[in-house]
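Late entry, written up from scratch paper. The run itself happened at the end of the previous shift, but nothing got recorded in the book at the time, so transcribing now.
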Amino acid sequence: MTDHSDPGHSASAHLSGGADGFVLDTGIVLVWVGLAVLYLLAGRCAVLRGRTGWPIRRTAAWLAATGLGLAATGPLARAAGSSFTAHTAVHLVLGMLVPLLLVLGAPVTLFLRAVPASVGRRWSRLAGAAPLRVGTYPVTATLLSTIPLAFLYRDGSALGLVHHPVLGPLLHLHFLVSGVLFTYAVVGVDPNPHRAPAWMRGSAIVVGIAVHSVVAKHLYSVADQGAMPADVEQAAHLMYYGGDAIHVMLLVAFSAQVYREAGRRLHREAVRGTGASLPGSAG
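Output as recorded:
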């Protein structure tokens, strides 16, 4: 029987795929390394403008986020092509942990310290634009981060998107962007003139925890269905307990923020009370 395959065509296709993979990997590295370098340059510019005293914990959070992001979109993402557990790890790191660290890095605050006041005023007007306000509203951010999650892991029929050469990276991008929007909406430390009240931000966190828990338990309950991957039980365990661990970190950040806000409010009230009593005491 004659073999009609073309070895030259197969070799060229293999080389083309390898070249595409190299370009994609190089682009991923440049993006994450670029984010780290830009942050450090902004810090240096702020120092040159005389604005010192930037907390080292913010720099550490940002650099840790870029390092984890590089790992999640590089080797871990490649492992996710053949392992649903690895895909779940990508989801946890890229959609939850990296956004938390990026937001705690306070990049906008650092940027405002590094640029002239006129640029900062223009940025402040941009930050108040309606699309950004809607996207960072706790209700909207919660819907963006939970509804696609529920549909993706509903019955296994949409899991093919994870391995699609185009939709797969776009899915990872959605994890990252929706995670950043949600985290900024509930524990953002950068300036936010339209920050929601604490009760609404706390409620959004509780809803996010509940949805994540329900999705993980649902995955475990449908593990024996034909459309689900073989390692879905391990992935469900990782999603449940790994998500809880990151949610604890999110709750700690939220509680610390609310505590500081309450302390500043009490201090202002004490100052006003002292100022109001001064005329009487003088009389």
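DSSP finds eleven helices and no strands in the chain.
(Scratch paper discarded after transcription.)
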